[in-house]
Amino acid sequence: MFHRWSDLIIRRARLVLALGILTTVLAGVFGVGVFDKLGQGGFDDPASEASRELAEEREVFGNKSADVIAIYRSDDLTVTDPEFKAEVDETVAGLPDGTTTSVSTYWDTRDPSMVSSDKHATTVLVSLAGEDQAEMADINDEVVPALESENLETDIAGPWAVYKGVNETVSEDL
C-alpha cells in the first residue's frame, strides 16, 4: 500500500506540490475569518445554558461563589485564640469597598470544615463583585493583595488563583 502511494507521489510530484500550495493558500484565506470569532480569553462560554443560568442566579441572589479562598495559618496560635481571630478580622476589614459581595469566615459560619484538623489554620471564602470575567479579574487583582496578613501565613486558593496561574503559564509559554 505504501509502495503504491509513494509511486503515485513520485510520478505526480508537480501535481502534489501544486495541491499542497493551493491547500495552504486556501487554509490561510479561510483562517483569516477565524479571528473575528475568537474571544479575548476566559474560561466560560457566555452563550452556554450553564452560564445563562448562573447569570440569572446572580441577579436574584448576588454572587455567592467562593471565588477567592484565603488560608490563614499560624504555628503558634490556634483558630480559637482571640489574637488569631482579631488578625483575620483586621485583614478582612481592609478589603477595598465594593470589591466583594460576601466574605465568610469560620467565626461567621461556625462551619468546622473551615478549620484545619490541627486547629492552626482557617479559610476565608470571598465572593467577588463584578458583572463579567474581565471585571472580576480586575477586582481579584485588588482583593488578593489586601488579603495578605501581616502576622499570619497567608495562602490564596480558589478558581481565580487557578485562572491566574494558568494565564501566567500560558503567557510564559507563548
Structural overview:
- The chain has seven helices and four strands, in the order H-H-H-E-H-E-H-E-H-E-H.
- It is α+β, with helices and mostly antiparallel strands and 174 residues long.
- The protein has a four-stranded antiparallel beta sheet with strand order 2-3-1-4.
Summarize the structure.
By secondary structure, the protein is an alpha+beta fold.
Topology at a glance:
Layout: H1 2-11, H2 13-32, H3 49-61, E1 68-73, H4 82-93, E2 100-104, H5 106-109, E3 121-128, H6 133-146, E4 153-157, H7 159-173
Keywords for this entry:
four-stranded antiparallel β-sheet; 174 residues; 4 strands
Query: Into which percentage range does the β-strand content fall?
Result: 5-15%
Q: Judging from the principal axes of the Cα atoms, what is the shape? A: elongated
Mean pLDDT, all residues: 88
Largest sheet: 4 strands, antiparallel
Helix content: 40-55%
Number of helices: 7
Number of E-type strands: 4
Distance between the termini: 40 Å
Question: Could you tell me the radius of gyration in angstroms?
Answer: 26 Å
* Uncertain regions spanning at least 5 consecutive residues: none
Alpha-beta classification = alpha+beta
Strand neighbour order, sheet with most strands? 2-3-1-4
Topology as a string of helices (H) and strands (E): HHHEHEHEHEH
